[in-house]
Amino acid sequence: MRLVKWWTDLANSAEPQRGSASLEFIVTGLILLVPLVYLVLTMAQLQAGALAVEGAARQAARVYVLGESTTDAGARAQRAIDITLSDYGVDPATARVQVTCSPQPADCLARRGFVSVSIEVIVALPLAPEAVRGQSLLAVPLDASATQQVSRFRSAP
User: Fold this and answer.
1) For the whole model, what pTM was predicted?
2) Can you tell me the distance from the alpha carbon of 100 to that of 147, in angstroms, rounded to the nearest whole number?
3) CA nearest to 101, candidates 112, 116, 119
4) What is the DSSP letter of 119?
5) Which residues pair with 123 in a beta bridge?
6) H/E element, 117
7) Which strands, in side-by-side order, build the sheet including 114-124?
8) Which of 47, 65, 81, 102 is deepest in the core (most CB within 10 A)?
9) pLDDT per position in the chain (157 positions), as tens?
10) Residue 144 neighbours by CB under 8 Å, 6+ apart
């Protein structure tokens, strides 16, 4: 009952309420909007990095098994990695690439052998200063690997 009386007294008061609703709206909006925009930018950057690293590993493994020799295959794989990472805005120079072969590590292009390509990159968070971009708090490491089998119909070198 007291609440109803208070509400009616407030509504019937002769003195109009004065405030700055537009200022309150702008301040509250900025407090909520700025972190939300930063979150969206961060998630977009991380998604682009994840797609880049996964696509680069897959394409590198695919072109590696089609190479004429291990030197040619390595060059093809590196070219595929560079192009794929660049397409997503990731610096290819920061990528760490590892190629492993099984069951015969000496001959990566042996028939029915498997070639695995692993790639790791570090994606910097948006709006991070250039001086501290590589530090662990302002960057997220992403990695991916892909495996392809060398064709059983591959001609001998």
Assistant:
1) 0.77
2) 9
3) 116
4) E
5) 140
6) strand 114-124
7) 96-102, 114-124, 139-149
8) 81
9) 666 666 666 666 656 656 677 887 888 888 889 999 999 999 999 999 999 999 999 999 999 999 988 999 999 999 999 999 999 999 999 899 999 998 877 888 888 999 999 999 999 888 877 776 656 678 899 999 999 999 888 776 5
10) 50, 53, 54, 56, 57, 58, 118, 119
Residue type, 26: I
Site of tokens 């790791």: 120
| Distant-in-sequence, close-in-space partners of 12: CB < 8 Å, separation ≥ 6 | none
DSSP state of 93: G
Inter-CA distances, 147 with 22, 85, 117, 125, Å:
58, 18, 6, 29
Can you tell me whether residue 25 is helix, strand or coil?
A: helix
Asked if the bond preceding 103 is cis, omega within 30° of 0, the reply is: yes
Tokens representing residue 51 in the block: 């797609």
Tell me how far apart the alpha carbons of residues 140 and 57 are, in angstroms, rounded to a whole number.
18
Question: In terms of DSSP H, where are the helices of the chain?
Answer: 2-11, 21-64, 70-87
Q: At what angle do helices 70-87 and 21-64 cross, to 10 degrees?
A: 170
